Amino acid sequence: MSADGERGGVRASNRERELVVQRLARAFAHGRLTPAEYDERVAAAYACTDRDELARLTDDLPGRLW
């Protein structure tokens, strides 16, 4: 729980972070992300602590995460 009593989202696992990074790599390979966007999102994926944060990194890409 956070300091104000609200519960955060479901915590992300290392495997889920890796899946997002793989998806970002595919998007980059298909020209959907610039090199700078790819680098920024990969760094953010490894820093994410919950699934909602991870999902936001791929919301604008085709397909679904889970």
What do these coordinates show?
With 66 residues, the chain is an all-alpha fold. It has a domain at 14-56. Helices cover 53% and strands 0% of the residues. It has three helices and no strands. Helix 1 (14-29) packs antiparallel against helix 2 (35-47). It is globular and about 35 Å long. The two termini are 24 Å apart. The relative contact order is 0.22.
Quickly give the structural class.
mainly alpha
Number of helices: 3
Number of beta strands: 0
H-E string:
HHH
Radius of gyration: 13 Å
Strand fraction band? under 5%
Q: Estimate percent helicity.
A: 40-55%
Q: Characterize the biggest β-sheet.
A: none
Low-pLDDT residue spans = 1-5
Overall shape: globular
What's the overall average pLDDT, rounded?
88
What separation lies between the terminal Cα atoms?
24 Å
Topology:
Elements: H1 14-29, H2 35-47, H3 51-56
Task: Please outline what is shown here.
The chain has helices at 14-29, 35-47, 51-56. It is built from three helices and no strands.
Characteristic key phrases:
3 helices; mainly alpha; disordered N terminus; 66 residues
